[in-house]
Amino acid sequence: MRKMTMTLIMLWAVCFMAVAQDKPEKMWIQFDDRFTENEVIDLKGVDSIGFSKSRLYLYKYDEVRNVVRQTVKTFRQNGDYRFDEVQRAIVKPSGYRDVDFTKESSQWCFQRSMESEHFICFWENGLELKNNSVSYNGSTLNVKTLLSRGEEIWKNYVDEQGFLEVGNSPSTDTHKICMFIVKTSWDGSDWRADGSGQDGTITIPASGETKWTRVGLFHCTPRAANAEGGHTVAHEIGHVFQFLVSADLGANAGNYSSYGWQWGFGDHASGGCAWWESCAQWQAYQVYPATLFTSGYYNEYVNSAYKNLLHEDYRYANYFVQYYWTQLYGKDFIGKLWRATRYPEDPVETFKRMKSLSQDDFNKIMFDYACRTTTWDIDGLRERGKSSQNAFSTILKHVEGTDNTYQVSEEQCPQNYGFNIIRLKGFEGGKTVKVHFKGVAGTTGFRSVKTDKAGWRYGFVAQTEEGSTVYGEMQSDKEGDAELVLPENTKRAWLVVTGAPTEHWRHPWDDDASNDEQWPYQVTFESCSAQGAIRNYGDYPSDYERKDVTVRLDAELIAANDYSGVNVPYDMDEISQALGISTAQMKSVKCNTSGSPGQVIFAGVNADGSFNYNTTTTSSTEQLYGHWFTTKGDVGIYDGKAPIYAEMNTQDYICKVGQYPGKLVSGNTYIIRQAIIYVHTDGKRYKAIMEVHLKMK
Asked: What is the pTM for the complete model shown?
């Protein structure tokens, strides 16, 4: 190889003496030990190159003195001389300091590596490369594909998201990100995927000394590399870029720990940073958006959006708000947000400082975001979210001693910047819907945390039959009114409420709900009512006119290989008013009986309308009644042939409707029915049938 290289130098020297305009300005030395900075030889003004066994000679003609001047350099025997631009050098991660990468017998070596422009990928000793792929425990990873994905991710994270500044990135302008394909994780399983970075060293060829710097680092097993169509890889590389923010800004400022949220949000910057996971999810979805609304994290978000914006519980599911922020401030806003970090700020503080926002300004932004999630009226989500509209629901409970006032449940009470979306019913297009709102921070049954900082934002949203969204005026009074004149062709309507503290404070990752703030409120509606509200009904008069009723309830669920489900509130208002039974009677509902006069009983309804009075889920209890259903809507048992379950809690009439792993088909809608039956004292039966239309995604 060295002989070939020297021959090329001789040929090149002859060529560029003849054609001056084609002369390259630089020559690089790329060393066999890639953990060495590439050496650059300046060729400006050089007319020819000569060499001996140990020396390299550069010749320049001095026109003024009419002489040829010679520069002598050592001829390197441990690398390649190149006229084309060389590969970036490699920083040796500190965790691999004891590995000799030049020996093929080592756990890691250059012989078992492959490179792209910005990445070098090593595969562990024992993994054999065949057709550019390595396999372990039945899983195969194509190394070229992994590198190709890496470059696709790089382009998006740098050119569009703005996490790095090319030309001002000490960690990546001349160095590569290191990928390591491992056989197993620390626990011996075949699943590992992680990304971040480490301190590392690189040798300076002129002096032979090593310098410390930082390097992006990624690990995965063959199994993990293929997960979610590349999303898992993109998520972990997202963490690499988050790390590189602190690496670059810290190198330029001489202080790594003050940038890129390398700290938590507890006392004295203690604890973890949930925002790392939330943003890595969002970053990955910019490259691989296929599962944006179909992964299990989507359901988790729908069920957790009332929590603090920076809450640790739903950190992997909290990847939607970033879409709205980039709609407001540009595609690269999240990258800019990361690069604008200053110790010990959290993302809200950084956001407000960047944009010179008051607390009221930020509360307005978060309210507008919450309103738009009703129909996903947000850039990047609008089209993909069409089949996921009207996904949120909120349970309200009747306030004792009032006629028509309801209070948010403790389980869904909004925290700082969290939100509730209350589905409405009983409205008329063209009419005005109204609500009287009252914030009741610190009321009995809710946590009292900094109640002097309590605040809310609230207002109506409506959607027409054609799909357009209409937004009502935002209100912020602790006690006040909101209203909206509905379009004539209104299809859906909601009340949106956000937690809007008058002062911001940091949310620590402490896995302790006892110190999480809550902003409870009460609402009284006019010309509409809330779906799924829980009211305490008293006894009805003996001559009350009872009737049968069927209530259609729409629900959405992601088809998955698990027992996941979605909460569907059975309409206690409809049940009580149709059957003429009190709340106490509803809660006394019995199962596994055909009923006797005066009883309220629970039954599954077959497709032909017949009733099954026995529960069929093995998890049914004295307060949880359930059935398995076939795809045709008949009551079945737990045998895999009846892949839909529905279990109703008798105390709040919330029914969890879910799936048997891998049995339901995305795109299909399945109809199941359960009934509450009142056997009147005269023996006549009145039926309230809850008909659930379960749309699979």
From this structure: 0.86
